[in-house]
């Protein structure tokens, strides 16, 4: 009996099997052809960007603009963390180090560069120039840290990153001439005049990061990372240079988060190691993608939106219970749906019999 | 010279405590292949438990340790039964994140019950010292060292002399073989998790006698525990003891070279060096040095 490709060979005696095979072979109704569906994701990113960019034209409410600005930064951080934590499956508890480095690079460049070199650049130009440097510094540090720690597998890498975050925080607190130590640095008010620019920069960065993640997910590099996530030994056997892939993913992730930290700085009046290098920053970056859907493209975006909503609505009224909320969220997601909101959404149609 | 001698002796004394707290982590890893990230939370709650019990009952902190031990043994069993067991077949990172969530909940619990104020357990002998010539040894350090050592010896007896202990060690070696000979692996998981939690809580209670604490207390000690079990090889008691000594000595001696504020960085550096240079722990490295005085006959 010849079977056409894609069709399960069936035996007439097994009635149940035949029915199941017939259901599997029946073409599902598809609203869009594959070639068209390819462009859905970038279109969605463009739409998201257009919506975000339009808000300052529609409203002058400074609070709303500030909330959306932070949301865009959080989305970038969440998607950035997901590059290594989700795509490669290497959960990092130390991303605050990259965030803080980015924040301090931008702050110090804006504060000290004009004085040190006599270069008189307008603040907006200086800000935009400082951001790639912020990301680059974080990425270089990520490579230095990643080469020893990423030889470790899964949970061991995670624990080592707790150490990275803690060590960097302690060193930053101690390095008072650079970071301001426990007192922190005050940033000039003039930075806040950049807020509208910061807003657009954050929106652009958010869109670029999601597009980048989309591109990586479909690339050979992304497939290699997925292989590492699913079975590192098998990936290695198949010729994936696992350590190099993981280090590269960590560096990209650190670059994204470092730039996000730099953008954040331009909206602040004050910067201290205990705020940007805090363990809670790392916790936030873990929580957002996990709640949204770890390892997916849109999960981290949804997670960041949920996180901001949660922070603005619940935590603002009960500030002492945020660790309860984060902890229980993590426990619930892990126990009932490790795929997060995206996993839940995928499960619903399956339950309905599709 | 006297200073060097004192820091060395202090390091040896605190190493006993480090071994107690790390062994809890090593035991859970050995039996269940889980990294218990709620370890930090349990260390901290153990410290609060000692403080609260000795204040409410009006007795010496050391007298309350058995109560803390039993309570946390039960708590550990409940955590295993209710949370960890449900994820037995899930990827290891899921359990790690679950226990991380539990740590956050424990921290928040401590904040809301005991507030964020820094506390300390004070005893009549907190300030007293023993002097031996050049040496000055604080009594609390000596007492906690002795208790830590006694607990480890008891545990070692339990693991080698009893049926349940042997079964736990067998589980750490080969899970499937244990199932085949009829060992109730799930029940023993519960016992091992309970024991690990108990060790962490008691170590937390002892640490509370030496250091002041707040709800953030456990974090650095968890990192040290982890550095110790990685350095010591994840399953060996002697390895854990040697590694505790190495970490404690490195920390105490480092103060001469680096500022005290950076002392907690030492554990992290040891962790990374150990992971890169000695991935199987110090005992495996020692075992690899083969001493062959004669050629083996063919």
Task: Describe the overall structure.
The complex is a heterodimer of chains A (354) and B (298). Chain A has 17 helices and 2 strands. With 354 residues, chain A is an all-alpha fold. Chain A has a domain at 71-279. Chain A has a two-stranded antiparallel sheet. In chain A, helix 4 (62-87) runs parallel beside helix 9 (195-218) and helix 6 packs antiparallel against helix 12 (242-265). Chain A is globular and about 65 Å long. The two termini of chain A are 30 Å apart. In chain A, 44% of the residues are buried. Mean pLDDT of chain A is 83; it is low at 1-20. With 298 residues, chain B is mainly α. Chain B has one domain (2-215). Chain B contains 12 helices and 2 strands; from the N terminus they run H-H-H-H-E-E-H-H-H-H-H-H-H-H. Chain B has helices spanning 2-32, 39-57, 65-82, 92-114, 139-161, 163-173, 175-180, 185-210, 218-232, 237-254, 263-277, 282-288; strands at 129-132, 135-138. Chain B has a two-stranded antiparallel ribbon. In chain B, a hairpin with a 2-residue loop joins strand 1 and strand 2. Residues 291-298 of chain B have low confidence and may be disordered. Chain A binds chain B through residues 89, 91, 93, 148-149, 151-152, 154-156, 158-160, 162-164, 166-167, 170-171, 173-174, 279, 283, 286, 290, 320-324, 326-331, 334-335, 338, and chain B through 35, 37, 83, 86-87, 90-98, 100-109, 111-112, 219-220, 222-223, 226-227, 230, 259, 261-262, 264-265, 267-269, 271-272, 275-276, 279.
């Amino acid at each position: 009996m010849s079977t056409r490709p894609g069709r399960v060979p069936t035996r007439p005696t097994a009635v149940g099997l035949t029915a199941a095979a017939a259901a599997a072979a029946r073409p599902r109704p598809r609203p869009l052809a594959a070639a068209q569906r390819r462009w859905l994701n970038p279109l969605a990113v463009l739409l998201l960007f257009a919506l975000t960019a339009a808000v300052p034209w529609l409203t002058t409410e400074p609070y709303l603009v500030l909330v959306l600005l932070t949301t865009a930064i959080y989305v970038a951080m969440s998607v950035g963390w997901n590059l290594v934590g989700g795509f490669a499956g290497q959960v990092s508890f130390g991303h605050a180090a990259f965030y803080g480095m980015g924040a301090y690079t931008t702050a110090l460049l804006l504060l000290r560069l004009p004085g040190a070199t006599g270069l008189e650049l307008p603040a907006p130009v200086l800000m935009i120039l400082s951001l790639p440097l912020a990301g680059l510094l974080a990425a270089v540090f990520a490579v230095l840290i990643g080469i020893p720690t990423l030889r470790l597998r899964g949970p061991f890498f995670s624990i080592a990153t707790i150490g990275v975050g803690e060590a960097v925080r302690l060193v930053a607190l101690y390095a008072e001439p650079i970071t301001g130590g426990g007192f922190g640095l005050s940033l000039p008010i003039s930075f806040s005049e950049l807020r509208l620019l910061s807003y657009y920069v954050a929106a652009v960065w958010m869109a670029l990061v999601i597009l980048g993640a989309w591109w990586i997910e479909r690339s050979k590099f992304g497939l290699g990372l997925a292989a590492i996530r699913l079975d590192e030994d098998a990936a290695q056997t198949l010729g994936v240079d696992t350590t190099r892939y993981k280090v590269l993913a960590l560096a990209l992730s650190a670059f994204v988060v470092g730039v996000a930290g730099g953008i954040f700085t331009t909206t602040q009046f004050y910067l201290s190691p205990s705020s940007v290098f805090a363990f809670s920053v790392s916790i936030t970056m873990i929580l957002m993608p996990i709640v949204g859907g770890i390892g997916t493209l849109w999960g981290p975006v949804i997670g960041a939106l949920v996180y901001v909503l949660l922070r603005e609505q619940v935590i603002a009224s009960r500030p002492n219970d945020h660790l309860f909320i984060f902890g229980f969220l993590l426990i619930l997601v892990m126990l009932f749906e490790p795929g997060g909101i995206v996993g839940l959404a995928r499960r619903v149609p399956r339950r309905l019999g599709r | 010279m006297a200073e060097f001698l004192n820091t060395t002796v202090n390091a040896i004394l605190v190493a006993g405590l480090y071994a107690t707290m790390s062994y809890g982590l090593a035991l859970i890893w050995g039996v269940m292949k889980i990294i218990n990230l709620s370890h930090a939370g349990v260390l901290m709650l153990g410290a609060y438990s000692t403080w609260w019990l000795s204040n409410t009952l009006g007795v010496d902190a050391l007298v309350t340790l058995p109560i803390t031990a039993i309570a946390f043994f039960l708590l550990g069993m409940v955590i295993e039964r209710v949370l960890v067991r449900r994820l037995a077949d899930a990827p290891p990172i899921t359990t790690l994140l679950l226990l991380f969530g539990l740590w956050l909940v424990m921290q928040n619990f401590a904040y809301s019950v005991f507030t964020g104020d820094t506390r300390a357990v004070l005893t009549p002998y907190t300030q007293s010292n023993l002097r031996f010539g050049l040496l000055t040894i604080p009594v609390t350090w000596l007492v906690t060292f002795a208790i830590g050592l006694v607990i480890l010896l008891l545990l070692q007896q339990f693991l080698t002399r009893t049926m349940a202990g042997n079964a736990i060690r067998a589980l750490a070696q080969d899970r499937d073989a244990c199932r085949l000979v009829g060992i109730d692996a799930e029940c023993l998981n519960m016992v091992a998790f309970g024991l690990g939690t108990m060790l962490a809580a008691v170590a937390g209670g002892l640490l509370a006698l030496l250091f002041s604490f707040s709800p953030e207390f456990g974090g650095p000690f968890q990192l040290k525990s982890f550095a110790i079990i990685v350095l010591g090889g994840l399953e060996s008691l002697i390895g854990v003891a040697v590694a505790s000594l190495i970490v404690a000595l490195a920390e105490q001696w480092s103060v001469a070279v680096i500022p005290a504020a950076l002392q907690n960085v030492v554990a992290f550096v040891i962790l990374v060096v150990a992971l890169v240079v000695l991935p199987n722990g110090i005992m495996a490295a020692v075992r690899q040095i083969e001493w062959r005085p004669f050629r083996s006959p063919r």
